[in-house]
Batch of 3 targets.
Target 1
Amino acid sequence: MNAAASSSSSRPVRGAAVPVPSLSADETGAVADETFQRHTSPSLRRGGAGVAVVWFRNDLRVLDNEALVRAWAASEAVLPVFCVDPRIFEGSTHYFGFPKTAALRAQFLVECVGDLKYNLKKKGLDLLVRTGKPEEILPTIAKAVSAHTVYAQKETCSEELFVEGLVRKGLEQVQITQGGTSGQKKSPNPRLQLIWGATMYHIDDLPFTVNNLPDVYTQFRKAVESKSSVRNCSKLPPSLGPPPSYGLDEIGGWGAIPTLESLGLSVTKSEKGMHFKGGENAALGRVHEYFWKKDQLKVYKETRNGMLGPDYSTKFSPWLASGSLSPRYICEEVKRYEKQRVANDSTYWVLFELIWRDYFKFLSAKYGNSIFHLGGPRKVVSKWSQDQALFESWRDGRTGYPLIDANMMELSATGFMSNRGRQVTFGIRAHNC
């Protein structure tokens, strides 16, 4: 690394904070409205009966949410629910004590939930918010509104799978009766229906089972590109309403979105770096801004390894992680851009990176918790340092390497670090600390 490169790369947090996206509230709203309009189909019809609950977790969006659309089609009324699970905010990592969910991520999550509630209201629904364990909350709600099904997005990692199992057991204990005080009859227990929706390529469209997933990314990529196709985004009806007409008062109404204070957290907003706005509308705004307004998609492959500024890369990852943004929608917009503007290596490379994301999601389904173990699925034995002082100097940006320290300070101040920054800082941690 030459001195000039080190010096010029050591300033990622200088200057005023940059909002991402940088669109005004009116621009963001207009983009969201136009996007929803393009994905609305008046011809959709619902053919179900009764009440369906939708349990939102890592799919905090209305657009291209298969679980939500399935629930609407299979019911007369839909009740969206978000559980503020205290386990998400409690505890720390086994090594070195990192908090499970720190304040900056929690703030982003709170904004995502607020935006979800806003978009559901625009579609004729609302969002019921409760603080507590889903396995305790959802059976109570299902009983109160006589729900026949709880729909949710399928997850792959152990903590989420554990909670899914507890929710399923809780619903099995629910007894629902219909018909008033006279002539009551029992209905079947509400069931948990899990819907795949976290990846660009659907798990059912892979050219192999998850257990036979290739252990080499290139083999996976070539197989899905040649033998699979990306499904279209789910269409929305003009209205997703109504919500249930009974039972809500019994369980205390819609509830309030949590604040950081209620979660025992606080944020001192950085005056430097980038500030990501949480929520589906911000996510749609960022896609529009990067692809269409700033026309950056055509140079993505050339600029993606930068470190300074908002537009050297897409910055989609926070919204993808929270489920505020659908990977299929990104694919759809890439294809639209290629038809209307240009198709080149850069436009393809966004899809290439989304295939990487899919691959790791499917690997987690194949290998389970072993992906988090030090040895990984292959059980590779390596010797790791446990030098606390050396670790803290790396964590706090006090290594003496300007590039490393600047990146670590950016992460601490803003919650963000570039892809190249993550590679470089982890490289020195893995090989030199």
Target 2
Amino acid sequence: MTEQPHQHRANTKLKQQNKPFKSKHLTKSSLRDKAKGKVERVSVKQQSTRGFSNKTDRRNTAKLLQLKKREELFRKTKIFDGKDGTPKVVAVVALCPDVSSDDAVAKLFASVDQVPANKGAVLMTTDRFKQKLQFIPLQRNYIDIMDAAKVADFLLFVMSAVEEVDKFGEMILSGIQSQGVPSVMATISNLESTPAKKHSDIKKSLLSFTNHFFPEETKVHALDNTTETVNLLRMVAN
């Protein structure tokens, strides 16, 4: 039996098939389809860096917002107007160890020929200003002072002409500055115990110190001076 020679028959069904081209980059239409219904997420870190660049800007903005809200409240309600209105609350804070918030309140009352009815929170009513003022002399307790700063209409700082503001006083100022503050006023006690020729320099030095925390302040009121004390009360009452 003879072998038949092998014949290669072309298979017409077999064709070379090349893989379709797939771009590694999505087309515009693919990107649109992929993004349908999705919202771009912004990280917390991005959000925090898009706003204000430093703490000073944030504090200034918070201060302006607080003042704006307060002005709107006063304008709408007029709750402080007149002797029958709600008293303005003034928290008194001693920043130096040799001054007393109670003593400061007593000097404020003395300037309008009055005597505090008691120690602690006390109400001042005078025909001169036609406005009730509620004074809260605070002891040197951090938590109490921070809490009072949240509800007071004014913060009255008492500094000394003899001793510098100590670390506790600076801590109080930093804490109040960071949490947001009501209107503040700076005062000085014990000025009469120093030479008269040094009074101006002492007040300038304390004003410079105060401006480090509250740049808007323009004056340090002497509690030993009746004229300055009355002017301070007038500013609070108006």
Target 3
Amino acid sequence: SDYNLEACEINRFSFLDYLNFLRSPQVLELIPYRFRKNLDGHPLKEEILFNDYYEFPDFTFPGAGLNCTSEDFANWIIALQNNKLFQKSTTLQTMWSPIKLNNGTATSWTRGWGIAKLRERHKAIGMSGGSRSVFLIYPDDNLAVVVLTNLAGSYPEDFIEEIAGCYNAEIIKADPLTYLRKNLKKVGFDKAIDFVKNEKIQNPKWSVQEDELNNWAYRMLAKNQLNEASEIFKLNVFLFPDSWNAYDSYGEILLKMNNKTKAIEMYKKSIQLNPSNENGKKVLNEINGQ
């Protein structure tokens, strides 16, 4: 994986093997813990707090081998922003700059960072993992927020910007997805398209990224919030009518909601826009074969 390649590069340029690199002053060695109800196969009278650890194969260490506390996370973020982790002061800015396609168009992602909210004001960069943890750094606001939970499927990336908004209320309005989410919870998800139309009239520069909407809808789908997810997939098709993937995703949830006629329409549109959409063709064949 790319993370394993990065570990090899760290071994090469830091003159430390990867595990010793993690034990450097900026990346502390930590021991996680948890409560246990059983010990050596026998139930305990009451839960006891134990030091614990997980073993990962060596090749997964760069992506899944580090355990840390929020305090150590904060120290790492401070070291990162103070350029203590790089030899060149320009490295961090390069990492946080959008990747460009061959035609020169800027993408919505950066080098090695899973979340890149590259907006005009209150830019945020970070990463999420396991559907249970997330962090965002706001380099222009001298702010960072870290959310660590032990609940898989809690998707803290859906509310982390609201936490940041407690420190700077402008952040919520600056992030279109958070702003949209908060308002749709009030007016109803079935009003999503009308709300966006009205918002664009009042603020022509207001826009939301296609992949952010799609990912959010899939997170709601994972929590079985079919109606809400369906409205966001529908909104994505409205905002990005030339995206084959938007139609494909909308068709997927329509099929889950047993709306086969509309699902077929969406999959056909997706294939029309992208004749190489083999998954869409497969789904259509399965529907027609029923």
